[in-house]
Design a protein that fits this description.
The protein is an alpha+beta fold and about 675 residues long. Helix content is about 25%, strand content about 35%. It has 15 helices and 40 strands. It starts with a strand and ends with a strand. It comes from Phytohabitans kaempferiae. Keywords: ATP-binding, Biotin, Ligase, Nucleotide-binding. Its cofactor is biotin. Pfam families: Biotin_carb_C, Biotin_carb_N, Biotin_lipoyl, CPSase_L_D2. This is Biotin carboxylase N-terminal domain-containing protein.
Length: about 675
């Protein structure tokens, strides 16, 4: 029996495992890097061990330190979570060699299935359908193909290639990314199927020969080959197809002598054919939706199997209703999915029924790795939380999830929340006609929720009125008079904010009774600013009639053209986060008399995000053409290329490989030709 469990992971999955351990009476041990010292998973564990450093290679990827931590704390078992060393056969073997219980499949199985190349060859002999696969780029004769890392997953080391000319660089980039993420740069190529769906089957196997399928999950809504929305059951899978998929998954598990939780992933072609992609020898990020529809705690089943006990169910797990999960990530979909770093000031999701455990009835579940005040850095994955909706039908689950996301308060970092809501409400998604290219074909989902000019204007007005109320609340004299009131009307009160599409000036006038007598919002530079990015230039004479109902420092209620609207305002330093039924916007107040900023040298290329310079491919004096790759940055486990915007000569390179840079740092200076 397991008495004390060390979780060799961090964040959300560590908290998820700890929650089950508390329910069944197992003591817990956390490990943490320098940057994770204040992470919620550390506070929730019974014991915690520090891993000096921040880089994964110095902390969570150090199997020797993790085994030493288990021994030091008296843990008798290790759970790897997902990511990091979860599918590392050497680590699994080291845990067992240390006399500890490994919560996962045997090391030899991890090794076989951890190599996608070896797994495909083995399972093809067992009759599991496969796509054409190539190990040598020179042998690829048909396009498109997908370059994939043989080890690991999560979309890292993957590239779609549609012509022979692009194959060489794609293979080289995939190898670098795979080597950095998994320590193994081996890649292969397989035929790429357009308009395909990603469908996977959750299986559980015990040491007594029982292998139980838990139905399929649809994971086709992806960005950069990484899942962001998952659901079960799949709207494309019929009962007969489900039987075939589950039979293939069970056959794959039985072929390799599998024990524990695993997921067999398939590509579902438009023709209805399905092909094996890979087997994940661990718990999946999306396991929560399977827990909802089956009623089983999958972490508890993992621990039960690790203790050598048989699975408690006699056949395939039931499917009750429909569950959908979204991954809330710190990234900006509108700007090439650039990661967002900084302090998460607030994360509030309404109507959550449970956290980190199966729901007992339909509703919302939240699994989060962060808390208010958490610092989101560049060293780890961008996922902040998972929100899961379980309902009797798919339509109800999608509606509940979209509504809850819309009403959530997420302040401090840019997230993909608005995109997730627009996908869930999109007619094509609601029809179930989705595939892995959904985001490429439906660019309209990248628009912000706060999408009307009037909604942006009203949010700006609310921020200014809340700030005014805060000044009145803290005033030591004449606190009952509205801010800026004059006996004889003169100029309006004005505030300048840096909004989502550039700086805007907000003007308003209050009379002695506090009534709003005039207001306007206009671009600081109308020629350069397109308010809300909608293609509608801001004007000053068509504002909707607005009456002020009430204003406090944290809430403003307005009557907009006869409709009452409540806007919550959360001010942190000089940033006002305005949330309403229309959506959310962050407004940074600009100083009335800004300090002059040093001008950048003409031709300067600046870092679009904080990260590490992983490669520098040019030298001073070198001539480049538009589109040439100059260098790469690494942040949140992904490689971000920096290309030459135009032809020119590299005048200077202020950074070198390995350097850490902040957003806006000069990376190179090009003298244009």
């Amino acid at each position: 029996m397991i008495r004390r469990l060390l979780v060799a992971n961090r964040g959300e999955i560590a908290r998820r495992i700890f929650a089950t351990c508390r329910l069944i009476g197992i003591e817990t041990v956390a490990v943490y890097s320098d940057g994770d010292a204040d992470s919620p998973h550390v506070a929730e564990a019974d014991y915690a061990v520090h891993l000096p450093g921040n880089a994964p290679t110095a902390t969570y990827l150090r199997g020797d330190l993790l085994v030493a931590a288990a021994r030091k704390t008296g843990a008798d078992a290790v759970h790897p979570g997902y990511g990091f060393l979860a599918e590392n056969a050497e680590f699994a073997a080291a845990v067992v060699d240390a006399g500890l219980t490994w919560v996962g499949p045997p090391a030899k199985v991890i090794k076989v299935m951890g190599s996608k190349i070896e797994a495909k060859a083995l399972l093809a002999d067992a009759g599991v359908p496969m796509l054409p696969t190539y190990l040598d780029p020179e042998r690829v004769t048909e396009f498109p193909v997908l370059v994939k890392a043989s080890a690991g997953g999560g979309g890292r080391g993957m590239r779609i290639v549609r012509d022979a000319e692009s194959l060489g660089e794609a293979v080289a980039a995939a190898r670098r990314e795979a080597a950095g993420a998994f320590g193994d740069g081996t890649v292969f190529m397989e035929r790429y199927v357009d308009r395909s769906r990603h469908v996977e089957v959750q299986i559980f196997a015990d040491a007594h020969g029982n292998i139980i399928p838990f139905g399929e999950r649809e994971c086709s809504i992806q960005r950069r080959h990484q899942k962001i929305i998952e659901e079960t059951p799949s709207p494309a899978v019929t009962p007969s197809m489900r039987e075939e998929l589950c039979a293939a998954a069970v056959a794959a598990a039985r072929t390799v002598g599998y024990v524990g939780a695993g997921t067999v992933e398939f590509l579902l072609a438009p023709t209805g054919e399905f092909f094996f992609l890979e087997m994940n020898t661990r718990l999946q990020v999306e396991h929560a939706i399977t827990e909802c529809v089956s009623g089983f705690d999958l972490v508890q089943l993992q621990l039960l199997v690790a203790e050598g006990l048989p699975l408690p169910m006699g056949g395939a797990a039931p499917i009750r209703g429909h569950a959908i999960e979204v991954r809330l990530c710190a990234e900006d979909p509108a700007y090439a999915w650039l990661p967002s770093t900084g302090t998460l000031h607030r994360l509030r999701v309404p109507e959550v029924a449970a956290e980190f455990r199966p729901l007992i009835q339909p509703g919302l579940r939240l699994d989060s790795g962060v808390k208010d005040g958490s610092v989101v850095g560049v060293h780890y994955d961008s996922m902040l939380a998972k929100l899961i909706a379980w309902a009797p039908t798919r339509h109800e689950a999608a509606r509940l999830l979209a509504s809850s996301l819309t009403r959530s308060r997420i302040h401090g970092v840019v997230t993909n929340r608005d995109l997730l809501v627009r996908v869930l409400r999109h007619p094509t998604f609601q029809s179930g006609d989705i595939d892995t290219g959904f985001l490429d074909r439906h660019q309209e989902v990248f628009a912000p929720l706060l999408s009307s000019v009037d909604a942006v204007r009203v949010s700006c007005l609310a921020a200014a009125l809340a700030e005014s109320a805060a000044r009145r609340e803290s005033a030591t004299v004449l606190g009952s008079l509205p801010s800026g009131w004059r006996n004889v009307p003169s100029g309006s009160q004005t505030t300048v904010y840096d909004g989502p599409a550039g700086p805007v000036e907000v003007g308003y006038r209050l009379d002695r009774a506090g009534e709003l007598t005039n207001w306007w919002v206009r671009a600081v530079d109308p020629e350069d600013l397109d308010l809300a990015g909608l293609g509608h230039p801001p004007v000053t004479d068509d504002h909707p009639p607005v009456a002020l109902v009430s204003a406090t420092p944290d809430r403003v209620i307005l009557d907009v053209n006869g409709i009452r609207l409540s806007l919550d305002v959360d001010r942190v330093d000089n940033v006002s986060y305005v949330d309403s039924a229309e959506g959310s916007v962050a407004l940074t107040q600009l100083p009335r008399f800004p300090e002059p900023e040093p001008e950048l040298t003409e031709g300067s290329l600046v870092a679009p995000l904080p990260g590490a310079v992983s490669r520098v491919l040019v030298t001073p004096g070198q001539r480049v053409v538009a589109g040439d790759l100059l260098m790469t940055l690494e942040a949140m486990k992904l490689e971000h290329p920096v290309h030459a915007p135009a032809a020119g000569v590299v005048a200077s390179l202020p950074v070198t490989a390995g350097a850490q840079v902040d957003t806006g740092a000069v990376l190179a200076v090009l003298t244009p030709e």
